[in-house]
Amino acid sequence: MTAHRRLAPGARVVLASHNAGKVREVAALLAPYRIEVVSAGALGLPEPAETEDSFLGNARLKALAAARASGLPALADDSGFSVAALGGAPGVRTAEWAMQPDGTRDYAKAMARVAERAAASGNPDRRAWFTCALVLAWPDGHWEGFEGRVEGHWVWPPRGTRGFGYDPMFVPDGHTETFGEMDPARKHAISHRARAFAQLAAACLPPPAG
Ligand code: IMP
């Protein structure tokens, strides 16, 4: 196995995401490490189409594009919500299920679609999970990828106004609150993104400050 490539303390990293909720969560996770974060949006980088059929494939595509365009190491996230009764859908199509004809995203409608289709499937299995793939890529094409998952079940109607996306319809195993009701710090401690991030930190980040 090839050795991991670790970022140096003080390194500048591009966050290759155009989703404000995700940028906020990943920036919060990076805060204790001595890494300077700049967003792809702030650099005016284009958002590549997510053409792969896996979370890791799409994160790799976004991270490599941002690293090559900026000349800096780039970190990309690809994530989504999966429902057992729907064979893992919406999965890599999670963001698309929220897309409206005018280009805006409507998560209330996307959640309703998930619940309606799961009910119509006749499958009583309520299991659901979030997956997060994180890829750190360098301008020379080197990349490293990590995947995290949080398992639970879906509820209807949605509950809570915290978080973003599909948070209000997901209850993680061992909890009674949805991600939409939960204190953000608690969500950050157990989320799919936190789990992928822990692996990334162990392999590629400098030791946390302090
Ligand atoms: P993408 O990674 O930009 O392709 O989109 C991920 C999709 O999954 C978006 O629709 C997000 O709202 C949703 N998603 C990802 N992570 C979370 C989460 O932590 N909570 C709620 N929704 C999420």
Automatic annotation (TrEMBL):
Gene3D superfamilies: 3.90.950.10. The active site is at residue 78. Its EC number is 3.6.1.66. Binds 1 Mg(2+) ion per subunit. Mg(2+) binds at residue 78. The keyword Nucleotide-binding applies. It catalyses: ITP + H2O = IMP + diphosphate + H(+); XTP + H2O = XMP + diphosphate + H(+); dITP + H2O = dIMP + diphosphate + H(+). Its cofactor is Mg(2+). Substrate binds at residues 17-22, 79, 164-167, 187, 192-193. Keywords: Hydrolase, Magnesium, Metal-binding, Nucleotide metabolism, Nucleotide-binding. InterPro entries: dITP/XTP_pyrophosphatase, ITPase-like_fam, RdgB/HAM1. Belongs to the HAM1 NTPase family. Pyrophosphatase that catalyzes the hydrolysis of nucleoside triphosphates to their monophosphate derivatives, with a high preference for the non-canonical purine nucleotides XTP (xanthosine triphosphate), dITP (deoxyinosine triphosphate) and ITP. Seems to function as a house-cleaning enzyme that removes non-canonical purine nucleotides from the nucleotide pool, thus preventing their incorporation into DNA/RNA and avoiding chromosomal lesions. PANTHER family: INOSINE TRIPHOSPHATE PYROPHOSPHATASE, INOSINE TRIPHOSPHATE PYROPHOSPHATASE/HAM1 PROTEIN. Homodimer. This is dITP/XTP pyrophosphatase. It comes from Caldovatus aquaticus.
